[in-house]
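pasting for the record
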Amino acid sequence: MTLVAAWVAAGPAAADEHDDPWSRIRDGGDGVDVGLTVEQTQALADSYPPAASAESPVAWYDYVAVIDCIPPNSPDRPRLEICGFAVTFCEENVPDSSGPRSIIYRRTGYADGTDPTSWEPIGPTCFTDSVPARSGEPAVELTEAMIVEQFHRTDFALPQTVIQPPDGTALVNLPVYFELAWPDAGFAPAEVDTTTLVGRQVRIRPTLVGATYVTGDGTTIGPTTSLGGPYPDGGVTHTYDQPADVAPSITVEYGGEVSVDGGPWTTIPSTATIDGPSVDLQVLTSRNRLYSD
């Protein structure tokens, strides 16, 4: 069981005023070490090193919750890997928790500039989002507003306009076929952008709400979820009724889904509108002439 064997219940040893009661593992009653309760996890914020306190913060404890998976997870990279064990353990054994199961590491920091001590594990918890950043500071909760803000920071893929005929010219009164193409750069629908917010792994997956095809002659098509396509089956076409030099483009409205710490995907209550680059199109008139031999 990964790192669990490193923590053995300390037993009823006598405690002095600096004894750390949270270093003991709480037993669920069936031999499963389910870790610290939410109250114990939150109470870490009130714990200080010897000779330090909230009134005299000459030193403090820093905390980090490392998801309980085999290496490479570490205090420096606490959420590099989210394994099935860490997620299902909390779901099965602590159903009212936030999960995933994490090991709390602690080190001592000093107000006089002395280098902090090395990280040391103090126990597991399924209340990962309740782990404080340091003594005297409550945990920073991940909020919906944070997720929405991060969604709007996503490097969305710029929608590319592909037209047919493909040589940048078209004829009056003949249909032009439009297609929405996604470039390699940026995040297109169904691609996943992963980041970390307040110590939580946040995955954002853009979705296509709708695309508006701007033909360049004052007409728009959509919004539609159609990606169009080439002749003869493409579903987005436009016929120009007079010669002109136009610059068609596509505007996409992105929605999004979010998954936190490997959890289920849920809808982000916001959208983002992205204008793609235009392409040059010359609409010409075709003239019929009679020639004699």
